[in-house]
Automatic annotation (TrEMBL), chain A:
Name this protein carries in UniProt: ABC transporter ATP-binding protein
Lineage: Bacteria, Pseudomonadati, Bacteroidota, Flavobacteriia, Flavobacteriales
Domain ABC transporter per the UniProt entry, residue ranges: 4-237
UniProt keyword S-adenosyl-L-methionine present: no
Species per Swiss-Prot/TrEMBL record: Flavivirga aquimarina
Gene3D superfamilies listed in its UniProt record: P-loop containing nucleotide triphosphate hydrolases
The entry's keywords: ATP-binding, Nucleotide-binding, Transport
CDD domains, sorted: ABC_NrtD_SsuB_transporters
TrEMBL record, chain B:
Native source organism of the sequence: Flavivirga aquimarina
Transmembrane segments annotated in the record for this chain: 38-58, 168-188, 232-253, 286-311, 331-349
Family to which the UniProt record says this protein belongs: Belongs to the binding-protein-dependent transport system permease family.
UniProtKB keywords: Cell membrane, Membrane, Transmembrane, Transmembrane helix, Transport
Residue ranges occupied by any ABC transmembrane type-1 domain in the UniProt entry: 161-353
Protein name, per record: ABC transporter permease
Protein location: Cell membrane
Topology in membrane: Multi-pass membrane protein
InterPro entries hit by this protein: MetI-like (IPR000515), MetI-like_sf (IPR035906)
UniProt keyword Glycoprotein present: no
Main location: membrane
Length: 282, 368
């Protein structure tokens, strides 16, 4: 039996005539220790899917099974890293992490909890900034705090909702390596939602495209057979990488075209000819 | 250097930034290019003060002349030329008995201000002497289980200011204790919100006078056996009830509109309800709660005058009313002094709240 299973999930927002089905017929199963990436266009329902898995939302139809039992509400077993960091701005870095683990380990003493905070803040190399507030940190540092907060609860599964979407390309690359490093230590099950195909291929074992909503559903999966640890520069010359990347991008492009051709709107362009500036000034 | 920097920061923090610029001007720290800034930030505000006083002076003079002419004409019509000449001479001589009574000039107001301060020092000295005289007797009375003798003389203007401040803070505290917890409950539960909404909408616009009468009806009955003066109790409760609405509405709004991301975090971390309220909901609605409290304090100070007047509770409101009833020659200028004192204290209270708000709020731009 799979570790996480989504069976025929449908999610509808609104009621009656205003109802829009955002997700339909989603089937997914993730094995323990696997790193799966879901790639999709912006607005295709990725965040809805993530919220169904972490328990913030309930599916309209179908069921989400985590270790064989249906997901009801959130749980410390599933740590979430949000797209927009979602750090509490009135707490310092240390306090943000502390608040999370205090709930996760109610039996531990304050000293033990502080040790865990120090350990995880050190892991994302933010020890010098432990007493700073999120506002004083850069985007990359904030996301590292969010990573530390999610991991310090020692979840059995990490769910990442476009964790690096708001960062610049360089910081993004660094953080990808950092997350992979941390993940590599104990290989917990991980689900990454992203809009970046390269990021998905670099980090995950399996990539599943999400066909854009409304009525979003999962496309065919692509296995990434590249040995870990992966190297970005070497990967560029890897034949396997090129093949997979092209296949995924082609698939996504096809969906995009399909979506365009389905559009019934017609745009009438004005009948204009460009002026011939070159000859005019001769 | 460092000290003046701190001064600049402090003055800017409480919203009196031009004081810092003024200091820089006198210590010669400003460059020529900064002259425009100095002009805009200090010279123009100061000039506007002088302009205001000048206009006031001229206006007061015009009103004084109208009043004087009327008096002379009246004397002429009713009693003939001789009486008119006598009146004119009397007015010109500056004799108190026949001065026209109108808007006082800035100079008169300044005189009254000084006389009020002199009055205060006389009363304070009197009080101190009384205390000294009765000290031994009071000790004996306390030992015998009797009530000590207290000073019952007329309160000075300064005493009345402090009494008013006491009333306003008691009322503000009452408003805070009622409105903040109630606002949190209303904000947290949509059911409570819809059931309390009519209540808030109906009672919010009720005038301070009506609140005073309502509180008077209730407190009078509750304290029916007490021989003590209930005017203070009545006035501070009325002030509190009048002014609490802004805090109530703002707290409820702040609590019910917490950023969804923070709520999601609270859910994902599985925070308990108490943790969720104290660690997530309250800190995030603190800026709005403080905006409400700021409005509450300024409304409290504004309605205080009317309520003190009605409740006959000693304070600035009663001072103004008594001076108006008094009709002495310097009554009008004393009323204007009270007006400025009320305005300046209101401004300072507002700054005080702003300072506290900046200190506790998490989204401060530059903290000291």
């Amino acid at each position: 039996m799979a570790y996480l299973e989504l069976n025929n999930i449908h999610k509808t927002y609104g009621q009656g005539d205003h109802a829009t089905e955002v997700l339909s017929n989603i089937n997914l199963s993730i094995e323990e220790g696997e790193f799966v990436a879901i790639v999709g266009f912006t607005g295709s329902g990725k965040t809805t899917l993530v919220n169904l898995i972490n328990g913030l939302l309930e599916p309209t139809k179908g069921e989400v099974l985590f270790k064989g039992t249906p997901v009801v509400g959130t749980s410390h077993e599933r740590g979430v890293i949000f797209q927009n960091y979602s750090l509490l701005p009135w707490l310092t870095v240390g306090q943000n992490v502390f608040m999370a683990i205090k709930e996760a380990f109610p039996k531990k003493s304050k000293k033990e909890l502080n040790e865990i905070v120090a350990e995880y803040v050190e892991m994302v190399s933010l020890t010098p900034a432990i007493n700073k507030r999120p506002k004083e940190l850069s985007g990359g540092m904030r996301q590292r705090v969010a990573v530390a907060r999610a991991l310090a609860m020692k979840p059995e599964m990490i769910i990442m909702d476009e964790p690096l979407g708001a960062l610049d390309a360089l910081t993004r690359g660094n953080l990808q390596d950092e997350i992979l490093n941390i993940w590599g230590k104990d290989r917990r099950t991980a689900l990454l939602i992203t809009n970046d195909v390269d990021e998905g291929i670099y980090m995950a074992d399996r990539i599943i495209p999400l066909r854009p909503g409304p009525n979003a559903t999962l496309g065919p999966e692509f296995k990434i057979d590249i040995d870990r640890p992966r190297d970005k520069t070497e990967m560029n010359d890897n034949a396997n990488y090129k093949k997979t990347r092209n296949a995924i991008i082609e698939y996504l492009m096809d969906i995009g075209d399909e979506r365009k051709s389905q559009s019934k709107e017609e745009f009438v362009l004005p009948d204009l000819n460009p002026k011939d500036f070159v000859n005019q000034f001769k | 250097m460092k000290q003046s920097l701190t001064l600049n920061k402090v003055t800017k923090f409480v919203g009196l930034g031009f004081l810092g610029t003024l200091k820089d001007l006198f210590t010669g720290k400003l460059e020529k290019e900064d002259f425009k800034t100095v002009l805009r930030k200090t010279i123009v505000p100061i000039a506007s003060i002088f302009l205001f006083i000048g206009l006031w002076h001229m206006g007061a003079k015009t009103l004084y002349n109208i009043e004087a002419d009327y008096k002379i004409n009246k004397a002429l019509k009713e009693q003939g030329q001789a009486a008119a000449d006598a009146t004119a001479a009397c007015i010109a001589s500056g004799d108190i008995s026949c001065q026209p009574n109108s808007l006082p000039s800035p100079a008169q107001v300044w005189e009254s201000y000084k006389s009020l301060l002199r009055d205060h020092s006389i009363i304070s000295a009197d009080k101190a002497a009384f205390k000294e005289k009765t000290a031994a007797l009071n000790e004996k009375r306390i030992a015998e289980g009797k009530i000590p003798i207290v000073y019952t003389g007329r309160p000075s203007f300064v005493d009345q200011i402090f009494r008013s401040l006491k009333t306003v803070f008691a009322g503000f505290l009452l408003a805070l204790l009622i409105a903040v917890p109630l606002g949190i409950f209303i904000g947290l539960s949509p059911t409570l919100k819809s059931s309390f909404n009519w209540f808030i909408q109906i009672f919010k616009p009720v005038s301070p006078v009506v609140w005073y009468l309502l509180v008077f009806m209730i407190v009078k009955t509750l304290l029916i056996d007490s021989s003590e003066d209930s005017s203070f109790t009545i006035s501070f409760i009325s002030v509190g009830l009048c002014s609490m609405w802004a805090t109530l509405v703002n707290t409820a709004m702040g609590v019910s509109s917490v950023d969804k991301d923070y709520i999601n975090v609270a859910k994902v971390l599985k925070l308990g309800s108490a943790q969720k309220i104290f660690k997530v909901v309250l800190p995030s609605s603190l800026p709005l709660i403080f905006t409400g409290l700021k409005i509450t304090l300024s409304v409290a100070w504004m309605v205080l005058i009317a309520i003190e007047l009605l409740a006959q509770s000693p304070g600035l409101g009663l001072f103004v009313w008594e001076e108006f009833q008094n009709g002495a020659n310097d009554s009008n200028s004393k009323i204007i002094v009270a007006m400025f004192v009320i305005g300046i204290i209101g401004f300072l209270l507002d700054r005080l709240m702003l300072t506290i708000q900046n200190a506790v709020s998490f989204d401060k731009t530059d903290a000291i």
